[in-house]
Amino acid sequence: MAITLNGSGLTVEKLVRIARNKEKVELSKDSLERIKTCRAMLEEKIKAHEIMYGVNTGIGEFSEVVLNDEQVKDFQRYLIYNHAAGIGDPMPIEHVRGAMAGRINVHAHGNSGCRPEITLTLVEMLNKDCIPVVCEKGSVGACGDLAPMAQIALLMMGEGEAFYKGERLPGKVAFEKAGIKVPGLQARDGLATINGSNFMTAISALQLYDINRWLKQAEIACAMSLEALLANMKPYDVRLHKLRGFSGAVRSSQAIKKCIE
C-alpha cells in the first residue's frame, strides 16, 4: 500500500520507508484539491498584475524590480539556472528521495502556489525511481536548500541528470525511458520547488532513525555484557537516574533493565 502524503502525516519512519525501501507514495485527494485551489487563486492575482514576491518580481536585492508578462514566463527558468550549482560526488539516492518526499509533503498543505503537475511529477519520479543527480556539496541552507533543490527542479524542464534503472542519464532521456512527461515551469513553479530545507530535513531524519537503532543495539549489547559479567546493577537503578533528572539516562536504564529481566 502506498504511503499517503497529506502535509501532516509524514513521520521519520515513513520517510525512511520512502527513501530507503522505495515504497510508493500518493498525494491525498484533499491535498490535490488544496493545491488546485491555491493555484487558481495565484493565477487570478497574476492576471490582475498584483505584485507578488518571486512571482512577478525579482528576488533578493531585485525584489523591487517588477516583471512584465513575458519576463514572468521566463523568470522561473532563470531562477533555477541561477541556483542549480554544486560540487562533489552525487548525493546518496536515499537523501534525494527523502528530500523529494519532504517537498511533496510541503506542497500537500496547498499553500505553495505551484501547479498540480509539479507535485504530481515529483510523485511519479519517486514511484518510478527516476531520481535526480544532485551534487553533495553546495547548499547554504539560509532560506532553504536552494542549490540542491534546484538540481531537482532542472528535471522539471527536461534538463539536468537523473539515475534510472542503474544508469546515469540526461534528464530528458531518463524521463522518456520512465514514461514521465516534462511539466515545464510556469509562474511560481520553480520557487515552490526549491525554497525549503528538505535536504537538511531528510538527512537529519535518516540520521535520527539510524542513531535510535544504534542506541537500542548498544543497550542490548550493554545488557548482555552486564549479565555475562554478573555485574553490579545498582548503577542502572531507574530510581537513581530519576533523581539525577536526565530523561535520556532514565529511558536507557529502563531499557537495559528490561533486557536483563
Work out the oligomeric state of the chains in this entry.
single chain
Share of β-strand residues: 5-15%
With helices defined by DSSP (H or I, 4 residues minimum), what is the helix count? Answer: 11
The end-to-end distance, rounded to whole angstroms, is 37 Å
Find the structural class using helix and strand composition. Answer: mainly alpha
Strand order of the largest sheet: 4-6-7
- Envelope shape: elongated
Supply the CATH superfamily name of the largest domain: Fumarase/aspartase (N-terminal domain)
Instruction: Spell out the helices and strands N to C.
Output: EHEHHEHHEEHEEHHHHH
The total count of strands amounts to 7
Helical proportion, percent range: 40-55%
Which spans have pLDDT < 50 for at least 5 consecutive residues?
none
Q: Estimate the mean pLDDT confidence.
A: 97
| CATH fold field value of the largest domain | Fumarase C, Chain B, domain 1
Radius of gyration: 23 Å
Largest sheet: 3 strands, antiparallel
